[in-house]
């Protein structure tokens, strides 16, 4: 496009690579940025520069943070006996938001997938068995997605941990809190019935 | 959120201000950036830094570009007799993409709106009458949106240009190319009938 210089075109192209933005919305976002220089473009540019400089992948759990080991791995108040295995950092963030558990994590960075050609060597599995063998670790919770890939990965991880003296658990399946039975799939309903508890 | 440092939180908050991204998708976008540092975060950070430094608002037409006057105002091959008045830079970009006209532009930066309290002083109207009075200018095309605010603004601009010796025109109303009559509103259909042309 001749109307905007190559610098603006490049900004649009890069913004279009963000999830949730297509070529059209990236153009809109670029314009939004360019017309709000002081309020948005400059602060965002600065925030990205800082992220570039400071964000690291934790060498223990593969969380992203501005320190390595990450603030979760450093946090002495967390229960050292439990490691929560998640697929992605977004899952770690979701669990932290829920404040459901105060443990340490292990981010796999994906799932096994024969279809997409992702094998064990593509996941952050190398240090997991070693971490699980540490004397203080008593439980590994497999907080992977309830998808075929997630479950395949869970089985693989379980096999990997057979010689570590830890209890391997998985998240409960059931009716989501606030969910209506009418809208749930059969698999979820069946799981909820199977795992019913005393009222 | 304790899981990510304040630097990452700030990045998420700023990304959430982009049109098309909410708090949830901004978190997803931030994570996408942080896990693709070399391919995306660094180039985007650099593109934004360059945009911050170089992008200016054209003092003639209010287009955004990396030079002032902008590349369109400088372009000697464009028809100097026509000024296309648009609401926003996005409209200018849309017209440039269509390659429908090779003229110069005048970006108003919005519309008059009694409801939102935007008066003539909030628009880039100061230099328009002066530009239209230049001897080479013969026509001003009002390429504003076909909304109430757009049309109000069009009328105001027409009044502003009464003493300039220019022809003031507006975009044609009618059936969009590729559009189906069945899905069009009555106003568009009536306009299309009124402005029918010989086949």
UniProtKB/TrEMBL annotation, chains A, B:
The keyword Transcription regulation does not apply. The keyword Cell division does not apply. It holds the Pfam family RecR_HhH. GO terms for molecular function: DNA binding; zinc ion binding. It comes from the Bacteria. Keywords: DNA damage, DNA recombination, DNA repair, Metal-binding, Zinc, Zinc-finger. InterPro entries: DNA_Rcmb_RecR, Rcmb_RecR, Rcmb_RecR_Znf, TOPRIM_dom, TOPRIM_RecR. Coiled coil: none annotated. A zinc finger (C4-type) spans 58-73. CDD domains: TOPRIM_recR (cd01025). GO terms for biological process: DNA recombination; DNA repair. Residues 58-79 form the RecR protein domain. May play a role in DNA repair. It seems to be involved in an RecBC-independent recombinational process of DNA repair. It may act with RecF and RecO. NCBIfam families: recR. HAMAP family: RecR. Belongs to the RecR family. This is Recombination protein RecR. It comes from Chenggangzhangella methanolivorans.
């Amino acid at each position: 496009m001749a109307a905007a210089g190559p610098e603006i075109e490049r900004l649009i192209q890069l913004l279009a690579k963000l999830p949730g933005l297509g070529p059209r919305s990236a153009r809109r976002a670029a314009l939004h940025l360019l017309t709000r220089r002081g309020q948005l473009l400059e602060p965002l540019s600065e925030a990205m520069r800082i992220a570039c400089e400071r964000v690291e992948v934790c060498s223990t759990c593969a969380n992203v943070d501005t320190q390595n080991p990450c603030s979760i791995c450093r946090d002495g108040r967390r229960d050292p006996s439990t490691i929560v295995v998640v697929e992605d950092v977004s899952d770690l963030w979701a669990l932290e938001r829920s404040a459901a558990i105060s443990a340490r994590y292990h981010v796999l960075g994906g799932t096994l997938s024969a279809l997409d050609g992702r094998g064990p060597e593509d996941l952050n599995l190398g240090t997991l068995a070693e971490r699980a063998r540490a004397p203080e670790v008593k439980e590994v919770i497999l907080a992977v997605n309830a998808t075929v890939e997630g479950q395949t990965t869970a089985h693989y991880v379980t096999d990997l941990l057979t010689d570590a003296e830890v209890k391997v658990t998985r998240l409960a399946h059931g009716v989501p809190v606030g969910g209506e039975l009418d809208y749930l799939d059969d698999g979820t309903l069946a799981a909820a019935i199977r795992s019913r508890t005393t009222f």
